[in-house]
UniProtKB/TrEMBL annotation:
It comes from uncultured Alphaproteobacteria bacterium. Keywords: Membrane, Transmembrane, Transmembrane helix. The chain crosses the membrane at residues 15-36, 56-78, 106-129, 141-160, 166-185, 197-217, 257-283, 329-353, 365-388, 422-438, 483-504. This is DUF112 domain-containing protein. It holds the Pfam family TctA. Residues 17-450 form the DUF112 domain. InterPro entries: DUF112_TM.
Amino acid sequence: MEEIALGFATLMHPAVLGFLLIGIVAGLVVGAIPGLNDNIAFAIFIPLSFSLSPTYALALMVGLYCACAVGGSIPAIMVKVPGTASSVLTAIDGHAMARSGKAGQALGIAITSSVFGGFSSALVLLFFAPPMAAFALRFGYVENFALGVLGMASVIGLLGGSIVKGLISAVLGLLVATVGLSLQTGYPRFTYGVDNLYEGVPFVPLLVGLFGVTAVLELSEELIRDRRNGTAARDMPRITDSFVTPWPMIRRLLPSWVQSALIGNVIGIIPGAGMLMAIYMGYERISRRYKRLYAGKPGEPAWGEGAPEGIAAPEAANNAVVASSMVPLLSLGIPGNSVSALFIGALMIQGMAPGPLLFIDHPDVAWMIIVAFLVANLVMWPVSLALVRTISGLVFRLPKHVLVPTISLLCLTGAYSDENTVFSIVVALISGIVGYATRRLGIPHAPLILALVLGRTIEDNLGNALRISGGDWSIFLDPIGHPISAALILGAAAFMVGPAITGGRKRFQNRRRRAEAEVQNG
């Protein structure tokens, strides 16, 4: 209780609360702009937070993270264009409800569902992160190496696409992480005589490039395509009803919120699983429940045609991932998704490192972050309801030819402010081009980011562990001397092998069905 009180005492400073509120408003606006997302918001705001104190900067980032997902539901409902990828399913029932004259109700359900999911994940962060951090303090070099391997394997294995492309992304990130002076020998690697690379590739400009500059290139591509095709502005339904979700609707949606939030929290804790997996699982689960309870009843729309649960399920699951993805970050130093990986940049720019030592070296900041997620979700509800009409009326009309130069300027200014050198701008531009190219090739960015974060840690712990064992690699699988390491390595193997086996089984079943169909038709 003393630690929670410390977190509240730190957060309740008027200036800290002010920056939390700024983050919430900024997140709502950025999330509501189609083409932008929470990754881009972090890439822009992290460098700008350099001059702020740690508590101000991290409160800003918490507000930004919580609100971006909520903002994404606004264009999804109003014009059926998801502001963020996590709002893609909200657009189905949300826009149908808005078209039927219930735009206010749809937005109110989305906001309330998001707050429910977000607050539940903040409670998960509060109760799980501190004990996990205390347990992780017992880890040595062997266990920390195995933990890093597990984090990498989970991200690659849970991508849902090609494991080969995931491995390519991870190897690329590990190669970039090795640039600079070796932690073991002190010799420079891959610096090619460039003094700025002796301490490694600067992390913040790299993130700005991968997310911010890449987004600028993608927006430019969309702008060119829209002008070529003559894309017209979308017609937006008017808001004529109340945003406030009535009590009978809250009682009806409560089971959907609980089930979806539970799914989102479990998915959020697993590194690499991500929001999309959570919203699809929550949406599928609640769709079966809706069809069982409401299908065919008078006055109830069909699933996908304006069902309230079709908005509640993805939004609750989506925001339940937010704070729960911080559990592995704060307790183990492993980001749960790409946004929490960017949160590492916010910590690093303040001279802090994520992981269990954060609770020892900076307890006021660690507990302030946890408490801020609780407070942010409570504050976000009235703020979102108050601003949603204004945002929905203004943001969608913001043209891309204004967004592109604005984001470009913010990205390059942010990259420069990291070390006040032109070299940082060069890093941001190169990483942006690489990020755009890999995106076009279908190579995911999540393994790359995690490899950048964990690369040096994995290398350092591997070297120290092998030095202790005299070069014996079996130390990592020793069930007696290092049972935790053995379990983590086996878990990593399961993450890698499991999806491959499942994918092979599905391909075999599909081939068998096609063969049977050919026999029947032939």
